Amino acid sequence: MLNKVLIANRGEIAVRIVRACQELRSE
Q1: What is the pLDDT of residues 1-27, one digit of tens each?
Q2: What is the DSSP letter of 26?
């Protein structure tokens, strides 16, 4: 099920991951 969600919202999840990484780096 997660696979389908990841594929469907791949772009959105990618953006969230990038933002999370940036937040961790900023800290």
Answers
A1: 677 776 777 888 888 999 999 999 987
A2: H
Q: What residue type is 11 in one-letter code?
A: G
Residue 5's domain comprises 1-27
**1-27: b or e for each residue (b if 16 or more CB lie within 10 Å)?**
eeeeeeeeeeeeeeeeeeeeeeeeeee
Q: What is the pLDDT of residue 6?
A: 65
Structural domains counted in the chain: 1
